[in-house]
């Protein structure tokens, strides 16, 4: 049932040529009349129709003559699609679709075969993009999906389809915050093209899936714990999605997955710290109004791997406070930036920006950092972001050397002891995430003093 005559005609001819008996209705009211008078096995309906739409028809069918309903959807139907899924629509066909797709959907309806086993968890196969990225005008050349549940993603637009910015904006206003690309398309979207044509045995695949699931669950719990009531909730959710999508894209490269699991198995605090630094780096980058998805991916990925060099250093040394280390141990500790860079440089798909982040994440604006004592503009902009996020997380998260500070106190500590160590724009961005008046007041006072001297 569709209000487009030529579409109805083409569809009915296609189905009849495959042995189906078809009756067409030009609108939902007409469909109701036909359904009331005869017995049908299934209904195929468009969502968008004048007067009574496909959703209302689905509700009516559920209440009066329950039978399988297949809905034809377009990018315009994102919100309705979620509702239709909740109402039990049997299948969805994103426009335009091929004859095989409708025949497959019908045959699934009539076979009565519901998946016996619990459907596979699909979250690791898709990556979310904040809907703001679409509003900002990025062009999407890939198929777009909505997440209906962990087991069900639905393609709602084909690559290259014209998407109205106004429509996207209206979705965001109605509470739809993310659209999804397949992992493969996401890697192209962010410009991280890696070869996944690895000859993996089926056993290796199981191991890989388990590893990914473990990393995902562990990172989700870290991200949940980072939430603070002062945050802008949309920005927080967008940032979580950036980190999760970054983790997902990296996990697809066997060598990087190996490194991530090494990080997680070295010690629990190291992985939690890495995820937290990734989150705050992306958070600060967002507050700096960075919107380019490639840059957000690089900063989140670089932050995730910033301490990968520590995997070669004993946890007993890493547990010690800096003041407790011997000179040899300090040298060993400070080597983690170089070790990390060397480890990642062996993987050809890693962009040089990420190598720079790992190498420079302890460099300070005033030249007091390590390993190269770089100053100001010599430090990569992404490294400046990760450097501050790293310091903040060290203070505001639980460590072996003591309980965490509140975010407000952590920022004030950073300002008091290191206002000349960190990039001022990054500090302002961090302060803006929490909006504590005491932080802004101290920041302005210190800047005035620095300006006066
Ligand atoms: Fe570090």
Task: Offer a quick outline of the entry.
This protein has 453 residues and is mainly alpha-helical. It contains 21 helices and 7 strands.
Could you characterize the architecture of this molecule?
The protein has about 450 residues and is mainly alpha-helical. The protein folds into three domains: about 5-110, 3-Layer(aba) Sandwich (Rossmann fold), CATH 3.40.50; about 120-190, no CATH class; about 200-450, Orthogonal Bundle (Hypothetical protein af1432). The chain is about 55% helix and about 10% strand. It has helices at about 5-15, 30-35, 55-65, 80-85, 100-110, 130-135, 165-175, 185-190, 200-225, 235-250, 255-265, 270-285, 295-305, 315-320, 325-335, 335-345, 350-360, 380-395, 405-420, 425-435, 435-450; strands at about 45, 70-75, 90-95, 125-130, 145-150, 150-155, 180. The radius of gyration is 27 Å and the shape is elongated. Fe (ii) ion (FE2) binds near residues 336 and 361.
Highlighted features:
453 residues, mainly alpha, Hypothetical protein af1432, 3 domains, 3-stranded parallel sheet, two-stranded antiparallel ribbon, 56% helix, binds fe (ii) ion
Uncertain ranges: 194-206
Bound molecules: fe (ii) ion
Strand content: 5-15%
Number of strands: 7
What is the H level of CATH, i.e. the homologous superfamily of the largest domain?
Hypothetical protein af1432
